[in-house]
Write a structure and sequence with these properties.
Order of helices and strands: EEEHHEHEHEEEHHHHEHEH
Helix content: 40-55%
Largest sheet: 5 strands, mixed
Strand order of the largest sheet: 3-2-1-4-5
Bound molecules: 5'-O-[(R)-(carboxyoxy)(hydroxy)phosphoryl]adenosine, zinc ion
Shape: globular
Radius of gyration: 20 Å
Strand content: 15-25%
Structural class: alpha/beta
Length: about 325
């Protein structure tokens, strides 16, 4: 039995969730700043942290009201400690520590990617051993989990993350930020007609998306110089087809090699409809995707990972500080 209040503020969303036991979510309030950052074509870290300061108390109050919970009934305060933008992380961390100190509650520092992975457990039990495909704005990783909360990163991007590549391609196509969801929609309306290189199409579990991104940018610039028109839907479709080809084939290869029971998809790009369709159709084993509302950053996923940490008594002291970069493997319990 647990009642966990979680705070997520690693990038441009301030979110507070309250989770009862494994999956009774009493609230998941998300204050997004996307409309502001869209004006600049991407997240401006300084603006993100300032806006977090302005809204943290309101988001917290709204969450407690929605859940009809009093702080005294909360069992633990969880917070994303990293990775993420240092200023943004600090706001959530200070709020969490203040609550823990004031109300004498244990503090749990959660790895952002562990949160994305455990978003899946808000709807269904994860079966181990499993393989996680982590695809977000900052990460593209294959993570082997032999048991609960045990993380072995077996492959990762050598350069850009997949979400970052989506957003940069979106920018060159003059699409609103973030480009990922828009390209996903456009890809469905186009056909794969531009030749693009399959990125790092080798036997490793690693990824590389910067070459693919540059190929799209060069194609657009060359067309501009020759005064040719690009069909944006077709280019979106070609980019997505090539990117998904390598993501899906490497995931299935790793799942077979490691003989896992399930494939878990995590991170903002898990919302991608093409990825959902292709991986589900081609995987010989069961694939779990988080529900759409828990794909991009939210505190419900942090609460879900914190629930496991709570059960394993993985508490932090009040000198906990943010970690803008750090390995998921450090988070493994009992290794
Ligand atoms: O996990 P997330 O909210 O933030 C990070 O932790 O990075 O992921 C955000 C990323 C952005 O790059 C966004 O473009 C991408 O997820 N994204 C998508 C889709 N929805 C969000 N990418 C492709 N297709 C989508 N439907
Ligand atoms: Zn994220």
């Amino acid at each position: 039995m647990s009642l966990i209040l979680a705070i997520e503020s690693s990038c441009d969303e301030m979110s507070v969730a309250i989770l009862k036991d494994k999956r009774e979510l009493l609230c998941n309030v998300v204050a997004s700043q996307i409309d502001t950052h869209r004006l600049f074509g991407g997240v401006v870290p300084e603006i993100a942290s300032r806006m977090h300061v302005e809204c943290v108390s309101t988001v917290l109050k709204t969450a407690l009201q929605q859940a009809q919970i009093d702080m005294k009934d909360i069992d633990a305060i969880a917070v994303t400690k990293g990775p993420g933008l240092v200023g943004s992380l600090h706001v959530g961390m200070q709020a969490a520590k203040t609550l823990a100190l004031t109300y004498h509650k244990p503090l749990i520092g959660v790895h952002h990617i562990a949160g994305h992975i455990y978003a899946n457990e808000l709807v269904e039990d994860i079966e181990y051993p499993c393989l996680c495909l982590v695809v977000s704005g900052g990460h593209s990783e294959l993570v082997y989990m032999k048991k609960e909360f045990s993380f072995e990163v077996i492959g990762q991007t050598l350069d850009d993350a997949i979400g970052e590549a989506y957003d940069k391609v979106g920018r060159v196509l003059h699409l609103p930020y973030p480009g990922g969801p828009v390209i996903d929609k456009m890809a469905k309306e186009g056909t794969h007609s531009y030749p693009l290189p399959l990125p790092l199409n080798d036997d490793s579990y690693h990824f590389s998306f910067s070459g693919l991104k540059s190929a799209v940018i060069n194609l657009c610039h060359n067309a501009q110089q020759r005064k040719e028109t690009i069909i944006p839907e077709d280019l979106a479709c070609s980019f997505q087809t090539v990117a998904l080809e390598v993501l899906v084939s490497k995931t299935i290869k790793a799942a077979n090699d490691y003989q896992v029971k399930q494939i878990i998809v995590a991170g903002g790009v898990s919302a991608n409809s093409g990825l959902r369709k292709k991986l589900t159709e081609e995987s010989p084993i069961k694939v779990l995707f988080p529900p759409m509302k828990y794909c991009t950053d939210n505190a419900a996923m942090i609460a879900s990972a914190a629930r496991v940490m709570y059960e394993n008594q993985c508490f932090s002291t009040l000198d906990l500080s943010v970690k803008p970069t750090y390995d998921l493997e450090e988070e493994s319990i009992g290794e």
